[in-house]
Design brief:
By secondary structure, the protein is an alpha+beta fold. Helix 2 crosses helix 9 and helix 7 packs across helix 9 (about 335-345). The chain has a two-stranded parallel sheet. A two-stranded antiparallel ribbon has the order 2-4. The protein has 14 helices and 14 strands. It has one domain (about 25-489). Helices cover about 30% and strands about 15% of the residues. Strand 8 and strand 9 form a beta hairpin. The longest helix has 25 residues, at about 1-25. The protein is globular. Bound molecules: heme C (2 copies).
Length: about 500
């Protein structure tokens, strides 16, 4: 009898414990793993360990060879190069536009950092480092086939193309202008603290080519920071895919999936890694699409000298372009695109800061306890097959590179390949805390609406709702520590 009872007790307590554990897992409780000394060096041997200034993100990865420094510097000057319109006496610099958003990469990615939303209280504040993507739902069977086969990620707005170019060469009207206004949105913590978020709404006017399609979908995006991108490219695809959990089999409420996108040069479907919705598979393609749509410069990936003029924009099509035979019949030769990609792929990530401080330690604990790491996947060992400086590095980018439903609040309602209107790629967190130093602002998220790490967290919804709630229930000092930790990465 005695033994039976204790057996029953044992069985019952096992049941109880597993029920408890299940509940704990749902609410996202996790124990932080022991501190790994490599966390100090988030980009492995590509980590910059020198003094931090406004140029903190502009350093070459220290692990590139002396000869490669040359390529880095050449890539750097192409990144900063101001393109001019055709025809011009300097054929190696012409081809701008005819429609464009900026004359150089660096104009948007200032000090290779992040862009910002214009301040509506400042008259004519620069909109340059942010752009407005456009598209429409598929209208024809052919367009539906394009999307279903992944040959296209969006259907362009028929007159204006895939983004609104608010600048143009002389003699041609720019497409139009967009504007943002904010309404306050108050959030109250369980302990009574209030934070007033700003909810953006967008409007487009001064349209020079007629009305937008009635079903047009807008997606505002700020320029992303450029650090560590070669390392994100060097993560094994399978390593990313093992974290996919589309059907939420582990019942943590979080179901990431990789975007599947078109590789323009290979002519095949690959997983997406770059852009706020992971719409491009490789750095080269991301860069060359920026050359085309943002600056109006053709490359061997997108050889259209007319940039983003659509076939309905006849005045734009009639203008001269800068495609030249000695540059592979485009405006930025294959070698120029290679150099830019080398540069963008080898920008060092600064070392983590304050790692021995009590706030960092406590904040790190809290980060794992509330479950931020279920999307902001801390660490990877990069592929052995990657180019040498990026191969086999232990890195700490804090992203799973997967898409997550972030709720209605952050939705742009504009799909891009597999990413639906509520889904975004988990943003890497390395270097986030250096935004103020480098770019003089603290704006975060895809449209720069958050003005601090705290605001960014409070905008998390959808799959991240439970984690956010857990964060909000933490005592104030714990929340502050968690934010300090994120700002130290
Ligand atoms: C008009 C502003 C603008 C210009 C000019 C511009 N970019 Fe960007 N860049 C952006 C925006 C906005 C995004 C986010 C795009 C998205 O989500 O689709 C971005 C994203 C990127 C990314 C992806 C980063 C990541 O974390 O996934 C790379 C790489 C990049 N740009 C490189 C370049 C290069 C190289 C040039 C010059 C050829 C350039 N950009 C010019 C605004 C700009
Ligand atoms: C369900 C997945 C998920 C969880 C859980 C999650 N995040 Fe995020 N996080 C994202 C995605 C996706 C974005 C990009 C959203 C956007 O730009 O609209 C993001 C963006 C951010 C940003 C802004 C980064 C930038 O470059 O603009 C910060 C900061 C951040 N998260 C911190 C946290 C912290 C801290 C936690 C835990 C309290 C957390 N996140 C939990 C998915 C998640």
């Amino acid at each position: 009898m005695q033994t039976l009872t204790s057996r029953w007790y044992f069985a019952a307590s096992v049941l109880l414990t597993s029920a408890l554990m299940a509940e704990v897992a749902v609410s996202g409780d996790h124990v932080a793993p022991a501190f790994d000394p490599t966390e100090r060096l988030p980009a492995g041997s590509a980590t910059y360990q020198g003094k931090l200034s406004k140029k903190a993100l502009m350093h070459p990865a220290p692990n590139i060879s002396f000869e490669d420094r040359m390529d880095f510097n050449l890539g750097n000057s192409l990144f900063e190069k101001l393109w001019v319109s055709s025809p011009s006496s300097t054929t190696a610099s012409d081809g701008l536009g005819p429609l464009y958003n900026a004359r150089s990469c660096a104009r948007c990615h200032a000090r290779v950092g992040r862009g910002h939303a214009p301040d509506p209280t400042v008259q004519n504040d620069s909109r340059t480092s942010m752009l407005m993507r456009l598209s429409i739902p598929a209208q024809t069977p052919q367009q539906k086939r394009l999307l279903a086969g992944f040959q296209a990620g969006v259907i362009d707005e028929p007159m204006y193309g895939s983004q609104l170019q608010d600048l143009s060469v002389q003699g041609l009207p720019a497409e139009g202008q967009w504007h943002v206004t904010y309404t306050p949105h108050e959030v109250v913590y369980p302990d009574g603290r209030k934070v007033v978020l700003r909810k953006p709404s967008y409007r487009v006017d001064q349209l020079a080519y007629g009305d937008l399609h009635p079903d047009v979908m807008l997606s505002p995006r700020v320029a992303q920071p450029m650090i560590g991108l070669g390392l994100l490219a060097a993560i094994e695809t399978d390593d990313i895919l093992t974290y996919e959990d589309e059907l939420d089999r582990n019942h943590d409420g979080i179901s990431g999936r990789a975007n599947r996108v078109w590789n323009q040069t290979q002519g095949q479907i690959e997983i997406g890694r770059f852009g706020w919705k992971a719409g491009h598979p490789t750095l080269l393609q991301q860069n060359n699409s920026a050359f085309l749509a943002d600056i109006g410069i053709s490359t061997t990936t997108y050889p259209y000298g007319q940039g983003e003029c659509t076939h309905r924009q006849e005045g734009c099509l009639a203008l001269p372009n800068g495609n030249s035979e000695h540059l592979d019949s485009v405006e930025a030769s294959a070698e120029m695109a290679r150099l830019v990609t080398f540069y963008v792929g080898n920008l060092a990530v600064p070392a983590a800061r304050n790692v021995s401080s009590p706030a960092y330690k406590a904040g790190r604990e809290a980060f794992y306890t509330v479950g931020c790491q279920s999307c902001h996947r801390p660490s990877y060992l990069t592929s052995t097959n990657a180019p040498k400086p990026q191969a086999q590095q232990r890195i700490w980018p804090y992203t799973d590179l997967l898409l997550h439903d972030m709720g209605e609040g952050l939705a742009d309602n504009r799909p891009e390949f597999l990413a639906n209107g509520r889904e975004w790629r988990t943003a890497p967190l390395w270097g986030v805390g250096l935004t103020e130093l480098v770019n003089g602002h603290n704006q975060l998220l895809h449209d720069g609406r958050a003005r601090s790490v705290e605001e960014a967290i409070l905008w998390h919804g959808g799959e991240a709702e439970a984690v956010k709630q857990h964060f909000m229930q933490l005592p104030k000092t714990q929340r502050e520590n968690l934010i300090r930790f994120v700002e130290s990465l």
